Amino acid sequence: MSSASFSERHSDDLALDQIGPALSRLRRRAPASNKDLSRNLVLNVIADAPGEMTVGGLAAEMGVAQPVASRTVAACMGEGLLRRAASQSDGRRTVLELTEYGEAERNRFAAEQRKAFQEITAAWSPEERIQFARLLARYGTDATAWSRKQAASRD
């Protein structure tokens, strides 16, 4: 085996070992308060859900206990971001929906995040920015699917 291929593999391993810390830094460097981060997460989880979202479903998607999700939902409802509605498939269930204000706040958060991304990657080529954006979005989609599969296998 050539030293170049060992060196390349070693370099690739080092890069892969940095994924966890890099993802952690992404969250810590977000241009928002902790309150905004939490609200943004809730709004995105509900808006991106493939079907109706309940407080229990939100808790599972966020990886938190149901009381934590309930408190977060109550705070979001108090701010006018969410409303409760009867399930269309089972009228006995209550589901969560974004209000018009919730949609506006979600869009505001997205615009702030895009601006921060553009500032952070100012030295990158346009191609690098787009490639990273596409791969990060793909990672997010695949991570959600993986997480749901993991949760289903535990049930």
Portion in beta strands:
5-15%
Number of strands: 2
Structural class call reads mainly alpha
Q: Report how far the terminal alpha carbons are from each other.
A: 45 Å
Low-confidence segments, given as residue ranges, are none
Helix and strand run: HHHHHEEHH
Name the average pLDDT.
87
Q: What is the gyration radius calculated from CA atoms?
A: 19 Å
Helix content: over 70%
Number of helical stretches of at least 4 residues = 7
Overall outline: globular
Largest sheet geometry: 2 strands, antiparallel
Describe the 3D structure.
With 155 residues, the chain is mainly alpha-helical. It is built from seven helices and two strands, in the order H-H-H-H-H-E-E-H-H. The protein has helices at residues 3-17, 19-28, 34-48, 55-62, 66-78, 100-120, 126-154; strands at residues 82-86, 94-98. Strands 1-2 form a two-stranded antiparallel sheet. A hairpin with a 7-residue loop joins strand 1 (82-86) and strand 2. The longest helix is centred in the C-terminal third of the chain and has 29 residues, at 126-154. The radius of gyration is 19 Å and the shape is globular. The mean pLDDT is 87.
